[in-house]
Amino acid sequence: MTHQDSNAADHLPERGKPGKAVDPFADPGLPAHEPRRQDIDERAAKHSERVVTMLFVLAVIAAFGFIASYVLIPKSKVVFIFPVGHVSAQNFALGGTLGIALLCIGVGAIHWARTLMSDAEYASERHPISAPPEVRRKVFTDFQQGVAESGLGRRKMMRNALLGAMTIVPLSAIVLFRDLGPLPEKKLERTAWVGGKRLINMNDNQPLRPEDIAVGSLTFAKPEGVQESDEDFQEVMAKAALMIVRIMPSDIKDKRSADWGHQGILAYSKICTHVGCPISLYEQQTHHVLCPCHQSTFDLADGGRVIFGPAGHPLPQLRIAVNGQGYLSALGDFDKPVGPGYWERSA
Fold first, then answer.
1. Which residues, other chains included, contact 290 with Cβ-Cβ below 8 Å and sequence gap of 6+?
2. 88 - beta bridge partners?
């Protein structure tokens, strides 16, 4: 088609209306409103109301299930879920119940809006951001009309179910606040070490004697009575893990550290004071230990002092001695809280 042909086509008269040009971008207007079944059948409206109410009630039940799962299911319990595999039973229950609660509220709200609230479409001209008083009055009037059409005042059972769901479900998040930090106790300041507990070699599960530890060696130990088969073994060792070094007494710089040891044998926490990684890299010439996670370095000959890296505290030391049977044993707990700093930390 030539350029002239195109211009001519633009001015062709509309069919049935000779002489009038066609506007290809004319506003087609809104389609005729088609009422829904719920708009004309009160039984259908009641059915939708019951469905929405049931969804909100299920959300409340799921929220209570979330709280019950948190309280009743042990954190160490593991279950097999096909096809995921072995997962934490508590985590699975928490995720499932919270997901069901949120899903039921969302689906209930959508079903309410699509079947019971007004679905009439209105065209509104754009206006300046600062609305004149008459427009504001119209907005408030429209809002009140929308509340009336939504059935909040008339359908009390469904409204109360929604209010109950919106009240109970947020309690699920409040329960989780318990895990944001320790309870107001001293749990993080205490470990399984108490006076009289022998130091048990992690490799052979035998109690340690001074002659078992050579100068320049690094040995890992656990408290007497702690077994790998224990349900809370990992939790206990996360605080009680111990590393033992033997340094020539003349090389120990900190007198207090020497007094807390036995003939150059010193016992320190194995847990890095930065973010809690296990320390295992020992340089016997310098008596330094290195955390492999972020390279925090501690001097075991100088009271576990931080000499490099992001750690903010020296390694806690365990005071040890030799008991009547010739075994190394603890004289108490660590001198400072183990691991990273936290809000309630006293030192």
1. 279, 281, 282, 283, 296, 297
2. 78
Residue 66 CB coordination number (10 Å): 26
Written as six digits, the tokens of 87 are: 């997962």
Measured CA to CA, the distance from residue 44 to residue 312 in angstroms comes to 67
Number of helical H runs and strand E runs in the chain: 9, 14
Contact 14, 21 (CB under 8 A): yes
**Distance separating alpha carbons of residues 313 and 304, to the nearest angstrom:** 9
Distance CA 333, CA 320 (A): 10
Judge if pTM exceeds 0.70.
Answer: no
What are the 10-residue block averages of pLDDT along the chain, 347 residues in total?
46 51 73 86 93 96 94 90 87 94 95 88 69 84 82 80 88 76 70 94 93 92 92 90 94 93 95 91 92 93 93 93 95 90 61
Residue 22 DSSP symbol:
P
3-class SS of residue 282? strand
Estimate to the nearest angstrom the gap between the alpha carbon of 20 and the chain centroid.
67
Domains and CATH numbers, the chain: 37-180 (no CATH), 187-334 (2.102.10.10)
Q: Which amino acid is at 79?
A: V
Pairing, β 85-88 against β 17-21: unpaired
> Which of 63, 135, 131, 138 is closest to 99 using CA atoms?
63
